[in-house]
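ok so i was messing around last nite and threw this chain in just to see what happens. nothing serious, just curious
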Amino acid sequence: MSQKVEKLIDKKGLRLDGRKPDELRPIKIEVGVLANADGSAYIQQGKNKILAAVYGPRELHPKHLALPDRTVLRCRYHMAPFSVQERKSPAPSRREIELSKVIREALEPSLFLEYYPRTAIDVFIEVLQADGGTRCASITAASLALADAGIPMRDLVVACAAGKVDDTIVLDLMDTEDKKGNADVPVALMPNLNAITLLQMDGNLSLEEFEKAVNLAIDGCKKIYAMQKEALRAKYVNIKEVEE
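result:
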């Protein structure tokens, strides 16, 4: 007897969480949430809850890792043991090590690394609750934390994924769509410079579907970018009000 295939998009064209194909999940962003970090940010995107903290630029230890012409950007992406349904080992997994590298490479083009030779900037990302698309939400939060730390930047980096679910191209995949869908295309963007800093694809898409997914992800990035700028502005408006 064949198993009934679960439909991820209903007859009305709505997804499991009631969103239309081109809709983002609800997003909440806060900047400057940690007193002990040089810069920090928190993002809630759907059920994702992610914290990013930045320390530096500071002296690099061990010293032989220092570069004479630029700072070393180090990034650690980590999922808390309680962030997923089945308890995860606190030890860094191969996926976390890979995503740490992917996130670092997505952030580096936005920074003037040559301003701080022989130093390190450390970015720590802690996923408190995961529900699909954590790499994109982590890049969005980490970029804000770098801006909050006062590190000179060409532009904020914002990330969003699009993908294919039930033969439909959709924006901002949640966990079930990520696992049961046909494809996932994460994109990171510096909107002011119109420069893509990350483009990956997992799954199979035709060239036409790929172009549609990338364009949809870029549109999503631009919407989140407006929220990023608003979150930064809100922090400094609050500071001004407190000082007055």
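not much to say yet. The chain has four helices and ten strands.
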